[in-house]
Amino acid sequence: MRSNNNEHNKYFSVDAGISSETITKAERLVMERYSNMYSNWKEKEKNYRQEMEDLRQKEIAGFKNILPAPFTLSDVTIEWDYWESVLRHRYKTQNGDGYVQINWDRRGWLTDLLCVMKPVTRAEALTVCKWLLACDYFEERDSLFDRIILNLVGECEE
């Protein structure tokens, strides 16, 4: 099931051909606002790592103040696939192991949405469930996987 949320999808299209030379619109918006949080840390700041990390997480909040938020779970999966494509096609070649904090910050927020955003229809719930089963990221994360599945099917009283 694909979403009709054009505002959201224009930012997170993987059809545009992501490459190591191209910065996407979503990345550009994030870097214009938050690049200082991801680079040029002085030694003193590094010593306050956890404190700085907590402040950084609170400030960025998944970049929801500058990037459009998904309206449906289908939008969440579209955007997840977008960030996965960015990670796979560009950052692995530029940064060795592919670990990019911006990517993980946004995907962490999207993961939270998968746990709480209700499906619009049963068909969407089924489509998202199939997507979840095919997504390697959730393979070894049983507790997280369970929370998402319970959100998709609705929790029942025991």
How would you describe this structure in keywords?
mainly alpha; 8 helices
Q: Kindly provide the radius of gyration, computed on alpha-carbon positions and rounded to a whole number of angstroms.
A: 17 Å
Q: What is the multimeric organization of the chains shown? A: single chain
Model regions low in confidence, pLDDT < 50 over at least 5 residues: none
State the major sheet: none
Q: What's the shape?
A: globular
Proportion of strand residues: under 5%
Q: Which series of helices and strands comes N to C?
A: HHHHHHHH
Helix content: 55-70%
Q: Count the domains.
A: 1
Q: What's the end-to-end separation, in Å?
A: 31 Å
How many DSSP E strands?
Answer: 0
Q: Determine the structural class based on helices, strands and strand pairing.
A: mainly alpha
Mean pLDDT: 74
Tally of individual helices: 8
Brief digest:
Residues 31-58 form a coiled coil. The chain contains eight helices and no strands.
Secondary-structure topology with pairs:
Blueprint: H1 6-11, H2 25-34, H3 43-47, H4 49-60, H5 73-95, H6 101-116, H7 122-134, H8 142-153
Helix pairs in contact: 5-6, 7-8
Word description of this protein:
Keywords: Coiled coil. This protein has about 160 residues and is mainly α. It has one domain (about 5-155). The protein contains eight helices and no strands. The longest helix has 23 residues, at about 75-95. The protein is globular, with a radius of gyration of 17 Å. It starts with 5 loop residues before the first helix and ends in a 5-residue tail after the last helix.
